[in-house]
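Practice problem. Given the sequence and the SMILES for zinc ion, write out the predicted structure.
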Amino acid sequence: MREHAATHQPDAPPPAIGSSRVIAYAIVDKRVHFTGTQRLFVGDKLLGRTPRIAICKSLQRELKGYLVLFCSKRWQVLGIAGARSLPLAKKEVERHYAGIADKWVTVNTSAKAAKRWLAEAHPEDVCSFCGQFSYEVDAMFTAQSAVICSSCVDAFSNELKRREPA
Ligand SMILES: [Zn+2]
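Answer key:
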C-alpha cells in the first residue's frame, strides 16, 4: 500500500476538524509543561491540559482570524479559543504550555483539500443537490441516501409556488 506523505503521521489530525481546516498542530508530550495559568472554561468547568492542540481557520467565510482547538488524543474538540493571527495563536498557547514552541507541525491545509476530505469523511454533511456543507446553511435534512439543505428546500418550495395556478 502506498502512503501519502503528510497525512499518515501516526498522531496527525485529519485535514479538517469540525468545519475548520488545520493550519498547524502540536502533540503535547511530557516535555511540555502545563503552567495552569490558562482560564479557559467549558461550561462552568476549567479546561486543563489537553494532549493535542490544533490551530485552525474556519471554513465559514464570515469567521476571520484563527481558532485554537484544544483536543483529545483522537482530535475531538474539548475547548476553543480565538486569535487574530497565527503568531498570536502560538504565543497564547505557549503562555500556558511551556516548551510547546518547537512542537508545532505546520500543515497549512487548503480550504479545497479540507472540503474534499470533509465530503468524503462526512457525506451526510453535504447537500446532494447543491454541494453546500452543513456549516454553510441553516439546516440539513437527511433521508435514505439523500441529503438536502434548507436553501435548496426554500428554492424548490418557491419554484413550486411559482408554478401553482393563481
Ligand atoms: Zn442544497
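Check your answer against the key. Helices lie at 86-96, 111-121, 150-163.
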